[in-house]
Amino acid sequence: MSTTSSKRTAYSLVGALIALVVLSSTVHRWNSGGDSHLDRLNPTVFLRDPTNSLSYRNHLERTTSPPSQITHSPTLTFDHIYVLSLPTRQDRREQMEELAKAHGLRITFVDAVNKNEPFIRWIAERAVEVRAERLEIMARARKVDVSTLGGLHIGNDWLVQTPSPDSARPFPPRNDPRYASHGGNWVEYLEAHASAGTLDQLVPSDPQLNVTAALWDPNERIAGRQVNEGVISTFWGHTRAIKMILENGDRSALVLEDDVDVEWDLERLWSRIERRLPEDWESAFLGHCWGKELLKPQYLHPHLHRSSIPLCLHAYALSSAGASHALSLLLNPWTAYQTAVDTAFPSFISFNLLNSFSVDPPLIIQRKDGPSDIQQGVGSKWRGLLMDSTVERIRRAKGLEVWEDMYDENNLDPATVFRYGTTRKCH
C-alpha cells in the first residue's frame, strides 16, 4: 500500500471516529434532557434517510389519507370549539390558550356564572317547587309512597320523562300563573331574562336559602351527588354553551371545560374516528370518566362505541340536531336543574333519547391539578391516562415538574375495576 493511500485511510478513520463521537454526544444530550433541544440540533442527524426508506410511506400518506387527516383544521373539523370557563379564572383561561396554541387550535370562551349569583338561588327555589309537584304525580301514577322515590344515580326519578314506566304519556303541562307571559313555563321565563340581560331581576324570596338542604334527596347515599349552588351554576353554564351552538348555526361543535389535557396527536386521532360517525349522530364524547364505554361493540373503529353511560362533561361534541335535542331535554321545566348536568346527559342516553357515541380510551381527560369551582379539593384522584399528554409536554418545555403516575395494585382506578372484573376495591 502506498504512503498516500495509507494516510487517506487513516484520515478517513479519524474523521469517522470524530463524527461518531459528535453524534453520540449529541444523542446523549438529547436523551438526557440537557440544555440541547431539538431546535438546537443539526436536523440532518435525525432526518437523514440515505436509503429513502420512507418514500413509499410518504406516497401513501399523500395519496390515500382523507383530507381531514392531512389538512390542519383549527377547530378539529367542528365549526367551533367552545370552552366553558369563569371569567374570573384567568389562570385556567391562560392554560387553555396555551393548550390551544400547542395544537394550532382556535377556541371560543363561554362565560360560566359564579355560583353565588342571586338568580342561582332563584332557580333553586323553582326546582324545589317542581320537585314537590313531581313527587305527587309520580307517586300517584305508580301507586307508591313518595318516600320511595328519588335518588341521584344515572336514570333517576328526577330525569325520567314519564310519571310511570308503564305509560308513554309525559308529565302534564306545568302552567305556573306567575309566568303566564311565557305559557306558565318558568324555564322559558328564566331564558327570556337571560336574553334580555336582566337576570339581576330574578331575586330569590329567601336570599339565604340553603340550596343543599332544600333539595336534599334522602334516597341518595352519596353526599357528593346532592344538588348545591355549584351544581346549578354548572348546569346553567353547559346550557349556555349549547345555546351558543344553536345561535351560531354550527353544524357541529366541541364543548370543553377549562381543566382538560389532550392527546398530543389529538387532531390525527380524532380525524380517523370522526369520519366513522353515522350521519345521524347527535353527541360524541371525546372524553369521559372511568372507562365504562366498552359495554357496546366497536363501531367501525377500534376506539368508537355507542355510548353507555358516559360520565363527566369535560369534552363532548354535539351536532346541530343533537344540540337542539339535548337542550330541549335539559330545559324541560319538569327536569331542569333537578340533578347535576353530568348526571342528566348519561341518563338521557340510557333512556335512548340521544344518539350518542363515545371514544374509549378517551382522547381528552381532566387535569385535576387545581381547586375545583364546584366542590372541595380537586375531585376524583383518578384523572385518566393519555398516551402522550400535551400538558406534560408543555410543562417539560418550561422546565417544570411533571406528575408521574404510579401503579398501585391495591388502589385500582374504577376503569380498571370495571374492565377486568377485579375483586379489589377502589378506596
Number of separate domains: 1
Tally of helical segments: 14
Largest sheet properties: 7 strands, mixed
Amino-to-carboxy terminus distance: 78 Å
Strand order of the largest sheet: 2-1-3-7-5-8-6
Estimated structural class: alpha/beta
Helix content: 25-40%
Strand content: 5-15%
Quick one: overall form?
A: globular
User: Could you tell me the radius of gyration in angstroms?
Assistant: 27 Å
Number of DSSP-assigned strands: 9
Task: State mean pLDDT (0 to 100 scale).
Answer: 86
**Which stretches are poorly predicted, pLDDT < 50 over at least 5 residues?**
7-14, 16-41, 374-379
> H/E series, N to C?
HHHHEHEHHHHEEHEEEHHEEHH
Protein name: Glycosyltransferase family 25 protein
Organism: Rhodotorula toruloides
Key attributes of the depicted protein:
single chain, 427 residues, alpha/beta, two-stranded antiparallel ribbon, 14 helices, 9 strands, globular
Tell me about this structure.
It is globular, with a radius of gyration of 27 Å. Helix 9 packs antiparallel against helix 11 (320-330). Helix content is 39%, strand content 9%. It contains 14 helices and 9 strands. With 427 residues, the chain is of the alpha/beta class. It has one domain. It has a 7-stranded mixed sheet with strand order 2-1-3-7-5-8-6, with helices on both faces.
Itemize the secondary structure elements and their pairings:
Elements: H1 3-31, H2 43-47, H3 55-64, H4 67-70, E1 80-85, H5 90-103, E2 108-111, H6 118-142, H7 186-196, H8 211-214, H9 229-247, E3 252-257, E4 260-262, H10 266-274, E5 283-285, E6 304-306, E7 315-319, H11 320-330, H12 341-350, E8 356-359, E9 364-366, H13 390-397, H14 414-420
Parallel strand pairs: 1-2, 1-3, 5-8
Antiparallel strand pairs: 3-7, 4-9, 5-7, 6-8
Organism: Rhodotorula toruloides (Yeast)
Protein name: Glycosyltransferase family 25 protein
